[in-house]
Design goal:
Elements (H helix, E strand, L loop, with lengths): L2 E6 L5 H9 L9 E2 L14 E2 L2 H9 L3 E7 L2 E6 H7 L2 E3 L2 H5 L3 H4 L2 E6 L3 H10 L4 H14 L8 E3 L5
Parallel strand pairs: 1-6, 1-7, 2-3, 7-8
Antiparallel strand pairs: 2-5, 4-5
């Protein structure tokens, strides 16, 4: 099964593009995370929200195809989702680096590389506190510093 993987910094439009692709028949692999839900996020729709010990039990049980610790929280994709049930994912550059080379041949990775000022405005409009925004933007800069494992790069924020 060919897969599409969306990668982008905070507020780049990953969820927006995901919804467009879901509307065209793609099956989204909802990520698991230990971070608290944001306003309007729904468990089982936006993420599967887990306690840290539950997530780490999944690590020990080899449940995750890929997982990362980003900004203090864990995020992961289950092996079952990746190999059996889904063909659309959102990952970080570190998550992409965990894709098996054989599986990578069946993936199209789309990198949403949207201008910093546009992303900052989007984050501010979400009413996240400024410390959190600055920490997320700084973490993104570090996470994406040498990222080049993608097939398509989108720089237009009006995609």
């Amino acid at each position: 099964m060919n897969k599409i993987i969306l990668v982008g910094k905070s507020a780049a439009g990953k969820d927006h593009l995901r919804k467009i692709l879901e509307g065209r028949g793609f099956k989204y692999g909802i990520s698991y995370t230990t971070r608290p839900s944001r306003p309007n996020e729904v468990d089982g729709q936006d993420y599967y929200f887990l306690e840290k010990d539950e997530f780490l039990n999944g690590v020990n049980e080899k449940k995750w195809y890929e997982y990362v610790k980003f900004n203090g929280w864990y995020y992961g994709t289950s092996t079952k989702q990746f190999h059996q049930t889904c063909n659309l994912f959102i990952m970080t550059p570190h998550g992409v680096s965990h894709i098996d080379p054989v599986d990578r041949k069946e993936c199209t990775i789309i990198y949403l590389d949207i201008d910093y000022d546009i992303r900052l405005r989007r984050l501010i409009s979400r009413n996240d506190d400024n410390d959190k925004i600055e920490r997320r933007l700084e973490a993104d800069e570090n996470d994406f510093k040498h990222f080049n494992d993608y097939d398509i790069k989108i720089t237009d924020s009006n995609f």
